[in-house]
Amino acid sequence: MLTHKIEEVRANVKKWKSEGLVIGVVPTMGALHAGHASLIKKAVETCDKVIVSVFVNPIQFGPSEDFDKYPRTLEADVELAEGIGADLIFAPSADEMYGEGQRLSNDTLTYVAPPFFYVNKLCGKSRVGHFDGVCTVVMKLFNITQADYGFFGQKDAQQLIILRKMVNDLNVPIELIGCPIVREESGLALSSRNKYLNEKGKEDALALNKILNNIKMCYNKGVTDISALKETAFQFLNEAHELEYLEFVDKENLEDKEKADDNTLVLIACRVDGVRLIDNILLK
Ligand code: PAF
């Protein structure tokens, strides 16, 4: 069932809770693909009732980012989510989420702001305010759905680590489940933004996965020096690529690694033909 209304979600949740059912939420921005499908499938396997939210959250986009052109495919999203077994698709308007006419700024809105250490690196460096927007909307979704479990993709690894920190710091009664990255056969990590790529762009985008796999291969052969591992990336980059970062951090707390080890998460962000893509790999 599709609803645009918070009240309707709450009414369903109240009924489900009174029946002692376990509720899962899969927060998304829509344009659902096989990566989202794997989250919904996991949620359906884990929970009695599953809510999928579809909301392109304005407050997590910077002024020069792709909010307006972000793909919106609600009808197909509902079909996909229901086909997997989701019970409720919650697709609110911005007015419904933030209040009619609400000015979406941190002068006027209560934000959930994750700690500076977690946001002043990786994606947060170029996307100032992004994780405040993510945490704020996800906290709202947790409060609206009262879910027992929340399902998120490992592709947005920094996001997942920050959300775990938020849940822990604010004692939010929910367990977060991280689900593996889903890739095309070519190795390209699935992303709604892949829709912006043409055939050549998709070919160029494979560099991200190649760089990460190659780093893991070198690590497995015994290379732990991070500069040396970073060096190996350049053979995969050409004029189509604008590397934003390639970083080696602890998989739990995002602390920079001095040497690569089994707990190292390698993250990359790169513009490919102008499209910003991210990917990551765990070295273990
Ligand atoms: O990962 C996303 O799609 C978004 O950041 C999320 C978690 C749905 C919040 O808008």
Structural notes for this entry:
- By secondary structure, the chain is α/β, with parallel strands linked by helices.
- The protein folds into two domains: 2-179, 3-Layer(aba) Sandwich (Rossmann fold); 192-282, Pantoate--beta-alanine Ligase, Chain: A,domain 2.
- It has helices at 6-18, 34-46, 74-84, 94-98, 116-119, 123-126, 130-145, 157-169, 199-220, 226-231; strands at residues 2-3, 23-28, 49-54, 88-90, 149-153, 175-179, 241-250, 264-272, 275-282.
- The strands form two sheets. Strands 1-4-3-2-5-6 form a six-stranded parallel beta sheet, with helices on both faces. The protein has a three-stranded antiparallel beta sheet with strand order 7-8-9, with helices on one face.
- It starts with a strand and ends with a strand.
- The relative contact order is 0.13.
- Residues 27-29, 57, 60, 134, 137-138, 156, 159 line the site of pantoate.
What is this structure, in a nutshell?
This protein has 284 residues and is of the alpha/beta class. The protein folds into two domains: 2-179, Rossmann fold (3-Layer(aba) Sandwich); 192-282, Pantoate-beta-alanine ligase, C-terminal domain (Pantoate--beta-alanine Ligase, Chain: A,domain 2).
Write the layout of secondary structure elements.
Blueprint: E1 2-3, H1 6-18, E2 23-28, H2 34-46, E3 49-54, H3 74-84, E4 88-90, H4 94-98, H5 116-119, H6 123-126, H7 130-145, E5 149-153, H8 157-169, E6 175-179, H9 199-220, H10 226-231, E7 241-250, E8 264-272, E9 275-282
Parallel strand pairs: 1-4, 2-3, 2-5, 3-4, 5-6
Antiparallel strand pairs: 7-8, 8-9
The chain binds pantoate.
